[in-house]
């Protein structure tokens, strides 16, 4: 069990703290009004939160219309603690150190870095070591690290990773033995959705479609991830697109991600053009040169994705679907193609857009996940 050093346990403390975070600056009297707690309870809780330096007094506020003593305003200490986030793809690692409010202090990126069960621990330790050199001073230091895994995760266990073999490694146990702060593992698409919810979106029912080597969907409702049994919810890439189609590492044939994942598009363009290697930058170059084969490929890609997106909209009825993909981010017309295809009446009011967090949406989600755990606030909103 995680010690109280790494979490705000008491529900009323979390409730008061959340009101302070959401209101930026607030008086004790207003906290009592919003929380329905009496003034003595609010005073006791705010004193405790001040003692542990999670909040601080900012200034003397204005008197109310009926006069009386001017209130002392309270604010969240955004630099009270630090968070670590790692996004571990099969061929890259992205990482960030941030304050508790998600402000990134330092970030690192390694592209074209093949990750496997043999080198994952070394790469993670090296990354953490580089991130934590010369840490800024904070009252609580690092309060947790969340790792984004490209595969099925449940209760800190990696169940299945189709494109690398991290499911052969007990990463949680290994890392927990190495670090004093809590370790969390979660699916990459889930974290992308949580990042959007926490830092960018005004909507409470949100789906994030994440496309890399595979395709996954993160589903968030009121700050809570919808995980399903063993973390299987949202595995949209393993829904059947083509009966009896291409073999998939999951054991099925014809899975959506075998036709619409980014890596599949790159492979098809590589074969069309006789290239040695294709990534999103190469794809963009051909698109900007108005290459007809590339345009046709993007149309096909968008049509395939629109089928999966339409299906998940019908299942979960979100207010908004955000897409986390280097292709849609760099070639925004693909979003228009997708919206053109998702036209049925039941989906007409659903917003479909690129993630507002750019290429860092998964990292922001990992930061949000740790912050939720530490502060014990489920509907946490940290965006301005």
From TrEMBL:
Pfam families for the chain: ROK
Claim: Ubl conjugation is one of the keywords in the record: no
InterPro entries per the UniProt record, alphabetical: ATPase_NBD (IPR043129), ROK (IPR000600), ROK_cs (IPR049874), WH-like_DNA-bd_sf (IPR036388), WH_DNA-bd_sf (IPR036390)
PROSITE patterns to which the protein is assigned, alphabetical: ROK
Keywords: Carbohydrate metabolism, Xylose metabolism
GO BP term, pick one: D-xylose metabolic process
Free-text function comment from the UniProt entry: Transcriptional repressor of xylose-utilizing enzymes.
Family of the protein in this entry: Belongs to the ROK (NagC/XylR) family.
Protein name: MarR family transcriptional regulator
Source lineage: Bacteria, Bacillati, Bacillota, Bacilli, Bacillales
């Amino acid at each position: 069990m995680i010690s109280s050093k790494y979490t705000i346990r008491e529900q009323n403390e979390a409730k008061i703290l959340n009101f302070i975070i959401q209101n930026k600056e607030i008086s004790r009297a207003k906290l009592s009004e919003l929380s329905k707690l009496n003034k003595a309870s609010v005073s006791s809780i705010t004193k405790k939160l001040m003692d542990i330096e999670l909040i601080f007094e900012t200034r003397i506020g204005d008197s109310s219309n009926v006069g009386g003593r001017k209130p002392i305003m309270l604010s969240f200490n955004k630099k009270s603690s630090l968070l670590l986030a790692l996004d571990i793809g099969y061929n890259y690692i992205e990482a960030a150190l941030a304050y508790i409010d998600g402000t990134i202090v330092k970030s690192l990126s390694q592209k074209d870095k093949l990750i496997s069960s043999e080198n994952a621990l070394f790469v993670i330790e090296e990354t953490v070591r580089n991130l934590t050199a010369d840490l800024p001073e904070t009252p609580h230091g690092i309060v947790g690290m969340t790792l984004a895994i490209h595969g099925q995760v449940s209760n800190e266990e990696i169940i299945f990773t189709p494109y690398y073999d991290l499911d052969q490694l007990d990463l949680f146990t290994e890392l927990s033995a190495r670090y004093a702060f809590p370790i969390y593992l979660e699916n990459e698409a889930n974290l992308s959705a949580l990042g959007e919810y926490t830092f960018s979106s005004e909507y409470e029912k949100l789906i994030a479609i994440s496309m890399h080597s595979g395709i996954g969907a993160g589903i968030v409702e009121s700050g809570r991830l919808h995980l399903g049994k063993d973390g299987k919810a949202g595995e949209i890439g393993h829904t059947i697109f083509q009966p009896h189609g291409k073999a998939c590492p999951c054991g099925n044939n014809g899975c959506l991600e075998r036709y619409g994942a980014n890596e599949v598009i790159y492979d098809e363009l590589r074969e069309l053009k006789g290239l040695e290697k294709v990534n999103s930058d190469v794809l963009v170059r051909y698109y900007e040169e108005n290459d007809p084969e590339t345009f046709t490929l993007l149309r096909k890609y968008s049509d395939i994705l629109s089928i999966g997106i339409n299906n998940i909209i019908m299942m979960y009825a979100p207010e908004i679907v955000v897409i986390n993909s280097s292709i849609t981010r760099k070639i925004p017309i693909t979003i228009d193609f997708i919206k053109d295809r998702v036209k049925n009446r039941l989906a007409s009011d659903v917003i479909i857009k690129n993630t507002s967090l750019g290429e860092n949406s998964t990292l922001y989600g990992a930061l949000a996940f740790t912050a939720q755990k530490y502060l014990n606030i489920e509907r946490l909103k940290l965006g301005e």
